[in-house]
Amino acid sequence: METLTIGDLAARSGVAPSALRFYEREGLIHASRTSGNQRRYERAELRRVAFIKIAQQVGVSLDEIRAALESLPENRTPTKADWSRLSARWRYRLEERIAVLERLRDQLTGCIGCGCLSLQRCKLVNPSDQLAGRGAGPQMIINPPQD
Amino acid sequence: METLTIGDLAARSGVAPSALRFYEREGLIHASRTSGNQRRYERAELRRVAFIKIAQQVGVSLDEIRAALESLPENRTPTKADWSRLSARWRYRLEERIAVLERLRDQLTGCIGCGCLSLQRCKLVNPSDQLAGRGAGPQMIINPPQD
DNA sequence: CTGCAACTTGAAGTTCACTTCAGCTCAAGG
DNA sequence: CCTTGAGCTGAAGTGAACTTCAAGTTGCAG
Predict the structure, then answer these.
(1) Contact assessment for residue B51 and residue B86, using Cβ atoms and an 8 Å cutoff
(2) Is the CB of B6 under 7 A from strand C?
(3) How many CB atoms lie within 10 A of CB A145?
(4) Which of A92, B36, B47, B116 has the most neighbouring CB atoms within 10 Å?
């Protein structure tokens, strides 16, 4: 098996055929065609699809993913180094996302006794919304004060 | 200031007025009305909105958030204990989400040298897709083998 | 009392990421 | 050769979570 049909790629990647066609229309992946106009995928496309899935988990939009994929060399199959470069690019993003969620978790844990939900600093501690001027939303989580 | 206008609540919570009206239509928050039909919010609504925002960060849909909010007592302002109970409910969800992202980060870190993107186990190690039968998608991240 | 920013409504529009559909063609096992 | 599951297309539909719009009303500072 040298190339993959859309069904094969779908089964392997866990992405529906309709989504793969959609990705192609959006310029995220590429396929050659048989004489009968059916798509045939290089095995390397599997990695592209994996990259897309992973980036989505990190919270990156398809638009940004396309931009990243466009930075891959066009004239050759991407090397490990190419993929490493892209992966590294999302890492910071991922770290940030994790940090936000961990902060949220810690607040939630700390506040499970008081029920304050970290709206601004605990209402118990800060009953008159003194942080309200600092910007909208749950400040302690999104944008914690640097102590 | 006893109650809040929609503008006040929007400014305080960081949620647009249009979104607050939408939340009301969807039964997530409640408001009384002035004689002139304008919304007036109890301060307790601020906490409801905070809860909504936090739950969204955790990745909970508005439908599920509504269900959670419906479990709050209707006849009285929710107590700290009420909010604690709800917060606790999302904690597990949050932990899971964090775990997935951390697994992803570790894989990405580990693979930054090899560029394998954790599609299934490293291609370098597993060049013939031996994990493919285990289900679709990046198995190592979504559903890691229990060692 | 006046002016004007802030509020009201229902309906329609937007973005994202796909999925579904209808009507057709292709490819490969028996 | 024939059948049948897999694949093709463009267009339209979906659902989540809002936003925008138009046309009118309210509430408070001056």
Answers:
(1) yes
(2) yes
(3) 9
(4) B116
Collect all residues of chain B within an 8 Å Cβ-Cβ radius of residue A112.
84, 87-88, 91
pLDDT for B140: 44
How far from B72 is each of A2, B76, B87, B137, CA to CA, in Å?
Answer: 58, 9, 12, 38
8 Å CB contact of B98 and A98 = yes
- Test A97 with B101 for CB contact under 8 angstroms: yes
Residue B25 has a pLDDT of 97
Cβ B16 to strand D below 7 Å: yes
Interface contact flag, A102 B97, Cβ < 8 Å: no
Q: What does each C-alpha distance from A37 to A10, A25, A33 come to in angstroms?
A: 18, 15, 5
Q: Note the pLDDT tens digit of each residue in A57-115.
A: 888 999 999 999 999 998 898 887 888 888 888 888 889 889 888 888 877 776 654 55
Is A112 at the interface with chain B, CB within 8 A?
yes
